[in-house]
Amino acid sequence: MGAATSRAGSGGFSVVELLRTNRRAQLGLGVLGFFTVVGLVGPLFIEDAGAYVAIPYLEPSWAHPFGTTGQGQDVLAQTIVGTRASLFNGLLVGVAVVLIGAAVGVTAGFFGGWVDDALSLAVNVLLVVPSLPLAIVIAAYLPPGPFTVALVLIGTGWAWNARVLKVQTLSLRERDFVQAARVSGEPNWRIIFVEMLPNMGPILLTQLVGATTFAIGAQVGLEFLGLGDVGAVTWGSNLYWASNDQALLTGAWWTFVPTGTCIALVGFALSLLNTSVDEGTNPALRVERSWRAHLKRVGVPATMVTPVVRR
C-alpha cells in the first residue's frame, strides 16, 4: 500500500526519470558532482593549505595558479580544502534540519491535541525571530569550534520545515489509506513510516536541497564574520582572512574571487535541482514546461502565448 500511494501522492515522481529527462537537474547534479569529487579527492594531491609557500599577495602564476594570500598561503590549496569542509558541513546541517523538522512536524500533525500544541508553540517561537540574525547572536556567545556553526544552524533552522510537514501530515492523516491502516490495527509508527512518509518523499527532497543551500550560505556568512573557527580552512574562513588582510584595498582579487565563484556555482547547482524537483512533483509545471517547449519547436513566439492564471 505504501509504495503505491507514494507514487500516486507524488504525481508519478521519480528521481531517475527526473535526472534522465530534465536538463536543469542534469546540469545541477553535474556541477555538484564536480565539487564533490574536488572536495573528496583534491586534498590528496595538493600541499598543506596552511603552509606558507611564497611571498604574500603573489599574483596567479604557473607555480601558484590562484596566487597566494596575504599570509603567503596557496589560494588554490585553500579553495580545494575548503570545498570539502563547506560541502560536508552544509549537507550535515541540511540533513539534520530536515530530520528534526520531519520528527516535530509529523508528530504534531499526526497525534494532535496537547502534543500539537506544545510542539507548535516551540515552532512558532523560533519562527518569530529570523533565523540568520538569531544564529549570529547565538554564535557570538558560543566558543568557536569545528561544529559550533553547524549546531547553531541546526538549532535555528528546523522550524520552517516542521511547519510545512505538519500541514502535509494533516492532509495525509485523513486519507483513506491512512484510515484503513488505523482500522486494520497497524501501530502508529508503521502508519507514519510506511504509509505517510513515502508520500512526503518529494517534499522532503525539496526541503533537503533548500536547507543545504541555506546552510552553505549561512555557514559562509557566519565564518566571514569571524564567528566560526577561523583557524580551519573553509570557504567562509577564506573570505574572512581575505577581508582581514584588506584584499579589496590592495587589489588582490585572486584571494577571494575563486572562493566566491565556488560558492556561487554550488548555490546555482542547488537552485537548479530545487527547481527541477518542483517541476517533477507539480503536474501543472510539467504540462506548462512541455507546452512551452512544443510552442518553441513549432516556432510560436512566447509573446503570443497568453499566460495561464492558476486559481
Protein model, in words:
- The structure is a single chain.
- The chain is mostly helical and 311 residues long.
- It contains 15 helices and no strands.
- It has a single domain, classed as MetI-like fold (Orthogonal Bundle), CATH 1.10.3720.10.
- The two termini are 32 Å apart.
- It is elongated, with a radius of gyration of 23 Å.
Structural class call reads mainly alpha
Tally of contiguous helical segments: 15
The Cα radius of gyration reads 23 Å
CATH architecture: Orthogonal Bundle
What is the 3D form? elongated
What's the structural blueprint in terms of helices and strands?
Elements lengths: L1 H8 L5 H7 L1 H19 L33 H37 L1 H16 L2 H11 L6 H10 L1 H15 L2 H8 L4 H9 L4 H24 L10 H10 L2 H4 L6 H25 L1 H16 L13
Helix pairs in contact: 2-3, 3-4, 3-14, 4-5, 4-7, 4-8, 4-11, 4-12, 5-8, 6-7, 7-11, 9-10, 11-12, 11-14, 14-15
Characteristic key phrases:
311 residues; mainly alpha; 0% strand; elongated; disordered N terminus
What's this model, at a glance?
This protein has helices spanning 2-9, 15-21, 23-41, 75-111, 113-128, 131-141, 148-157, 159-173, 176-183, 188-196, 201-224, 235-244, 247-250, 257-281, 283-298. With 311 residues, the protein is mainly α.
